[in-house]
Automatic annotation (TrEMBL):
Native source species: Streptomyces caeni
Domain Protein YjdM C-terminal: 48-117
Positions of the Protein YjdM N-terminal domain: 5-33
Family statement: Belongs to the YjdM family.
Alphabetical list of Gene3D superfamilies matching this protein: 2.20.25.10, SH3 Domains (2.30.30.40)
Record protein name field: Zinc ribbon domain-containing protein YjdM
Domain of life: Bacteria
NCBIfam families the record matches: phnA (TIGR00686)
């Protein structure tokens, strides 16, 4: 089965060919690197999994699997702390869980440090 190659970005010629690792246009002699194949990450596809692979959803209850330091809090979060009613978001730096914790307040967590309760 042959792979369909993109047209030339310079002259829009459809007669491009592959000359490893570049694509070449025979009409204008333009050479370019092919775009990497588009793959969906877990965050883009909407599937968020916890540390052990369980799929998380809005409203779930999760448990911290290790102690976490929290800026502005002298105690932080201890391992085994339950967090109720989580909300999944596309946060900054891999923080994809938005929640409110007693004694700490509103915060974001990474799904890799929690497991579904």
């Amino acid at each position: 089965m042959t792979e369909i190659l993109p047209p030339c970005p310079e002259c829009s010629s459809e007669y491009t060919y592959e000359m490893s690792p570049l694509l070449v246009c025979p009409e204008c002699a333009h050479e370019w690197a092919p775009a990497p194949p588009a793959t969906e990450s877990a965050a883009e596809s909407g599937v968020v999994k916890d540390a052990v692979g369980n799929v998380l959803a809005d409203g779930d209850t999760v448990t911290a699997i290790k102690s976490l330091k929290v800026k502005g809090s002298p105690t932080g979060i201890k391992a085994g702390t339950k967090v109720r009613n989580i909300r999944l978001v596309s946060g900054v730096d891999g923080h994809d869980i938005d929640c409110r914790m007693d004694g700490v307040g509103a915060m974001q967590l990474r799904s890799g440090v929690v497991r579904k309760a």
